Amino acid sequence: MDLASRYKGVVGFVFGNENSGSSEDSYVERLLDRISNGVLAEDRRTAIAELQSVVAESRAGQLAFGAMGFPVLIGVLKEERDDVEMVRGALETLASALTPIDHVKGPTNEVQPALMNTDLLSRESESISLLLSLLSEEDFYVRYYTLQILTALLTNSPNRLQEAILSIPRGITRLMDMLMDREVIRNEALLLLTYLTREAEEIQKIVVFEGAFEKIFSIIKEEGGSEGGVVVQDCLELLNNLLRSNASNQVLLRETMGFDPLISILKQRGSTYSFTRQKTINLLSALETINLLMMGGSDADPQKDSNKITNKTALFQKKLLDQLLMLGVESQWAPIAVRCSALRCIANLVDGNPKNLDALSSKVLGEEQQVEPALNSILRIILRTSSMQEFIGADHVFKNFCEKNMDGQAMLASTLIPQPNSMTHAPFEEDVNMSFGSMLLHGLALSESDGDLETCSRAASVLTHILKDNTHCKEKILRVELEASMPSLGTPELLLNRIVRYLAVASSMKSKDGMPGYLYVQPIILKLLVTWLADCPSAVQCFLDSRPHLAYVLELVSSASSTVCVRGLAAVLLGECVIYNKSSESGKDGFSIADAISQKIGLTSYFLKFDEMQRSFLFSSVEPAQSHKPLTRSTAASMAEIEDVDESVLSDQKNEDHPILASIFDAQFVNLVKSLELSIRENIIDVYSRPKSDVAVVPAEMEQNGGESDKDYIKRLKAFVEKQCSEIQKLLGRNATLAEDLARTGGSGHSQPDLRAGSGLDRVQAETLRRDLQEASQRIDTLKAEKAKIESEASMYQNLAGKLESDLKSLSDAYNSLEQTNLHLENEVKALKSGGTSTSADIEAIKVEAREEAHKESEAELNDLLVCLGQEQSKVEKLSARLLELGEDVDKLLEGIGDDMGLPEDDEEEED
Fold first, then answer.
1. Which residues have C-beta within 8 Å of that of residue 79, sequence separation ≥ 6?
2. What is the pLDDT of residue 764?
3. What is the model's pTM?
4. For the chain, which has fewer Cβ within 10 Å, the N-terminal or C-terminal residue?
């Protein structure tokens, strides 16, 4: 009863007491009592049917059921599984209790009983486990109502249900088995799986492991591919959930089933011209799948880039480009939403892939008699389409085609060959046989009427992509000349000059009503000019060769009627005329342009234009890449009716929020403008901090006067030069301080006069002090090095002195010891010399003692000698005996030996 008690607490909190809606409460309570305590099975079934009817039609009934009905029906599902009718009725009642009742409109803050019931049931993990176990029942309605209950729970409490299903063994497996069930149950299971896999990565892995790809494409084929109904849409939504930001699942699909089943959905068969609403949604879903595969996975995945390249290569090998060109370019009867999505897929397919770029550049479309390059057909879409979204999609193709593709840009630029005046002003219907460049120039060189200016701006956007980061193309197209709009006007006109003139025309006609295109004509043309002049001094020189250009751009920057974006881009264009200006001609060099900015606009106001532009919606909300919301049942309807948005949206939007501008001003261009802004600020400071040019005119003061001596002349010249140097330093200091102050003021968005760094003279003096300080620092470093060297040598000598000192101390100690000994001996000698009788007595005693010791030593030596003689005697006796044995005459041999040795006793012994 914990379930009921918790719900009653919620109801009491919302409604104040437990007795509100008493009639429904009592009726529901009686029915629940009959279900739980009834004796007759038929009566219990009738009660559960009545309860289902009350809960399905009354919010109060739903609320009362939630307060006390869940434990009763959960008990029926647990204990009466064999009674199919009771289980079916209990499940149908639970489904009704979780389904919101919409036909009764109440206050917006009114409590929704169905949501409360869903929250309460989803908290019980045992209930989820019980419901999943019911999917294995044989009864059709039991499985059907169970799936409806799980879908309702997932719709309102997705995270809780996902965790519960993951914690139940084989929970996902049971749901996947339902895809092979009867059609109605399969569709419910499919819808449930699309909810489950939207964000749960672990569930996505399990679903794929259970063979989701095979089952999805099997259902799509069974339903008729793109011609199928909403089931195909659900299958593709489930497929997109499994592939979105999941590189491992993309690899598994590519290496198991391949991309053939997916591309076959795009192929048009039979009724090619028939596009129903559901078919449009199915094709959009399949194209979204293609885009997901070309994204390669999430940004955090290290294998994203390699997987992206592999997917693009595999898709191209399956002839995807042909299918996309058919849908996006050739099938003009296809809905605009499909064409736009196909164009975005083409752009993503060629992005960063050289082989795909080459294939697109060489691809031709049409029948045998009338074929033309695919790029020409896409350009025609840009120039002719009335759909804003289609223009954006086709322009995105050229953007990705030209991105880091120098050869492709050069190929397109080489076709820009002016046509005769009659061909230039021919209607668009006659441009089928034109080359790409001729068609582009045709769009750029139209008349100055309203619609033609909009077409010119679209052509200018394509030309921007061709010129981006390609100096060779910029200089080549600088030489393109167009015939004058009227033959009477004379000489041909440079393409750059024509584009600037159209910019001025658009500015003058901008106040007219009824043409939403003027909201983006000027910004697109300015983007072209900014891209063209970036890092191209020759383009800057060509732009400044016509003096009205500079005057017009200066006026555009300070124009109050222009938008923030237009004023900011015009300011960037002026800044490029300073930082990329290599001219030394007076009036066209960087100093002259900076001076004109200062005089006509004011540096403070000029720098503020940058800050206003950076704070605008277009620059502050730019995204790194085009992002599209996932295509679900709720968003599919709006995506399929994209053509209904164009005109209605434009009438209500502000100038800065135009959808085309949000697409044209991508992250790369915004980053370019930001980097140019920093360079412009630094270069203007540098221009004001250095001399304008070398002075070639010699002042009159430097000529020697008549009768002036050389000494006086030299002295006067020296004073003149010192004076000039002082004035130049002061002028440079003032200019540098002014430029720094204005740059800082522009960066902060408002004036701060208290933050000035001081006068120019102070700055010059500070620079001098800085150099002196640098020199002093260098001298200090040198002295520190010498000091360290001297300290090292001093330490070495100190150690050596310590060693010598210890040696000297040892010698001194030895010398002192010798002196003491010598002194002692001298004292003894003196004592001996001056000694008396006592000394003589001592001497005599010493002598006696010495004799005794000598006598003792003599006796000891004599004893030792006798021992030796005894040993020798024994040796002689043994030798004599041996000689006798040998027959020798011993006496004769020993004759004379005893006399010599002075040992007569030996002879006596021998005689014996």
1. none
2. 56
3. 0.73
4. C
